[in-house]
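If you are new to this repository, start here. Below is one unmodified record pulled from the training split, so you can see the exact layout before writing a loader.
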Amino acid sequence: MNYLVAALYRFVHLKDYAAMRQPLYDFCSERGITGTLLLAEEGINGTIAGKPEAIREVLARLRSDERLALLEHKESWAAEQPFYRMKVKLKREIVTMGVPNIHAATMAGTYVDPQHWNALIEDPDTVVVDVRNDYEVAIGTFANAINPKTASFTEFPEWVRQQSQEGGVLDGKRKVAMFCTGGIRCEKSTAYLRSQGFDEVFHLQGGILKYLETVPAEQSLWQGQCFVFDERVSVGHGLEQGDFSFCRACRYPLSEQDRASPVYEDGVSCPHCHGKHTEAQMARFRERQKQVELARQRKQRHIGVRLTP
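And here is the target side for that same chain:
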């Protein structure tokens, strides 16, 4: 494995976040790092990849800012560069919920480390909620976790409102445990629940990635694989790369069974998006896939691959 992948975030007040963009982009680009970093007044979030020494330099630079001294990050490895370019973007939120005045830096729930997570979610008094999007949950989650079936994180507050009503899964529940890929959505979702009057709110420290990295498979309550937002698509225990791939037309993660479907066409359609694109779109997808194959034959990467229509 040649490339170190670092998923990082920190909720902290960054009043000068716009001024941080260009120097951070230059620092990463000069070291051959690729990936995406998001900057907002509420903090920093992103995933980057590069040679190990280069990634260590970026992490050290970020932590040299006293506001980011406690920056969270998780590490994994990739045989090839999992990103095509480096981007540093300015955002209103580093993870978009769309609800004002949710201050995860000060309002987040109680951290639970991976070693104590099993005991919490096996407690019958605990409601366990997967706060990721539906397509992520589809390929793996914790045993008995509730899937809110959201298409985006902005739908989560409405789900909480509905499920807090009489008969909902949150109705009368005091103890709620939530988890996500790396921990960032957990922090914001627990902060939101606390703002809605929930007292005992917990989240998995370091997210699913830290759990899969540290908890032995024989002790694990995780089922399936974990979706990641890069070219690896999924990882399993020990953060070993999984066997899912992307549909280049709709970005849905595809299993071996999906790829065996008669409606699957590499780079063009899959069982999840078949029949949803126009003929013009499919013609563009086929031309794009042709260029990808030509680049592959030349043992080059097709940098211009788009992951969405």
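Two things worth knowing about this chain: The chain has a mean pLDDT of 93. The two ends are 31 Å apart (CA to CA).
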